[in-house]
Amino acid sequence: MTSAVNGGAWIRRYRPAPEAAVRLLCLPHAGGSASYYHPMAQALAPAADVLAAQYPGRQDRYAEPPAESIRELVERIVEAVVGDDDRPLALFGHSMGAVVAYETALTLAAGGRAPVRLFVSGRRAPSTHRVGRKLHECGDAELLQAVRRLGGTDGQVFEDEELLQLVLPALRGDYRALETYEPRPGDRLTCPVTVLTGDDDPVTTVAEARAWTDHTDGPTELCVFPGGHFYLNDRPQEVVDVVRRHLGL
Which residues pair with 92 in a beta bridge? Predict the structure, then answer.
């Protein structure tokens, strides 16, 4: 079962759990969609009510232009999840989704609705910096090659020219939003942060992941798994176990 919740197009609920004591909002990676978190929703229901953000420019939102910035995404997502549901909310974001989750947590906290925990996966801390070519400025072939190296996209996508033309605008838009993102100096969370990463991730070293501790006054825990950027595709139960443990499910 799939349903939209407050905010219509922006949020998906694959396994509604209205009686759950906690909600978990999941934020996808660049080029990703809400359905990436369908297995997590299945695994955590009915203990947690799992919501997944659907960014514009993909799946049933193909016709919409992608967001211009991370903060545009955050603004709309916060509008979608802040309503008459006052159950505790945790956030889980992978890769670009980790940045969206972090900024969403900051925005929620500023409005007096701080999340109970932030899970950031496959993304270096905002305080770390890398100098390199911006993928959103590259040609299609170079952008796709870089994405393919990360290993999280179904290989059939790269063989289907028609599908590629549907996917590319959202993918490029997501990378533009991510690569133009600049954290605000002094921003700091108070909630606990759980950091998950693969030990062979080409875009996030373990040291860069550990640096998330500099972004909260709450406790942090670093969970390192064997694997690359999409380590969680190969270890879904272990990731779910981490979420369960920290949310007390």
Answer: 26, 119
